[in-house]
Amino acid sequence: MAEKITLSKKDRLAVAWRSTFIQGSWNYERMQNGGWAFSLIPAIKKLYKTKEERSAALKRHLEFFNTHPYIASPILGVTLALEEERANGAPVDDVAIQGVKVGMMGPLAGVGDPVFWFTVRPMLGALGASLALAGNILGPIIFFVAWNIIRWAFMWYTQEFGYKAGSKITDDLSGGLLQDVTKGASILGMFVLGALVQRWVSIKFAPTVSEVKLDQGAYVEWDKLDQGSKGLQQAFQEVASGKALSNVKVTTLQDNLDQLIPGLAAVLLTLLCMWLLKKKVSPIIIILGLFVVGVVGHVIGLL
Prior knowledge:
Layout: H1 9-19, H2 33-47, H3 51-60, H4 72-87, H5 94-133, H6 138-171, H7 177-200, E1 208-213, H8 229-240, E2 248-252, H9 253-260, H10 264-278, H11 283-299
Antiparallel strand pairs: 1-2
C-alpha cells in the first residue's frame, strides 16, 4: 500500500502566503481564478507527481471563483483537504471540489465586506488618523502593522480551520455530508445575494410622470431667506420639517416603481443576468450588454 501523502504545515503556509495575492490576476470573466490556482500550486506539486495530474488539478481550479480576498482562506483550507484526500485515493471528483468552492464563496463573501471593509479597517484608520492629526508618526505605522497582523492571523487560522473541517467532510462522503454542506451553503448564499442586490444594483428610470405645483408654504422660498450661513441654516431646518426644495413636485417613473415594490428593477436585472449565465452566456458579453443598454438608455432619456 502506498504511503499516504500529507500536506505539511510548511506546504499550507506556502499556500496561505500565495493567497495574499489572490487579486493579482483578477479578470472580468473568471475573476479570482488565476490567483486561486496560483495559491494552490505548492499543494498541487506535493500531492500529484505526474505532469498530467498536475495539469488536470490546475485546470479544475481555473474555473470561475470570486469572493472576499480574506474570506477565501477557509475555502482554501477545505479545498486543500479535499485535494489531499483525492490524491490518496478517496472518491472526490471535480464536481465535488467545485461544488464546495461555489457553495461557500457566495455566503462567505457577504461576511467579508461588513467585517473588514466596514468595521475593522475604518476603526484602525480612525485610530491612525487621530494620532497623525496630533503630529504622532505612530499613526500610520500602527494602522499598517495592526491591519496586516489582523488580516494575516485571520487568513492563516481560518485556512487551518477549513483544512481540519474539510478532512472531517471527506470522512463521510458516502453519508452525504458533503452534499448537505454544499446545499446549505448554497441556500445561505441565495439569502445573502438577495440582501446585497438592493445595495449593489442601482437602476433609476428618468421619465417624468407628473409635475404638480405646490401651494405657498409647502416649499422653501429662497428669495425670502437671509443671506449667508444663517439663510442656509434656515433652509436646512425647513427641509427637515418636510418642505420641498422647489415649488414644483416632480414625480418620475422610478418614484412610482419605488412606491409599488422598492428595488424591483434591480432584482429583475439580477435574475436576468443569472439566467443568462445559466444559459452559458459569457460574463464579458453580459457586461458589455449592460454597458450599451446603460449608455443608450441615458441618451434617450430612459435611465
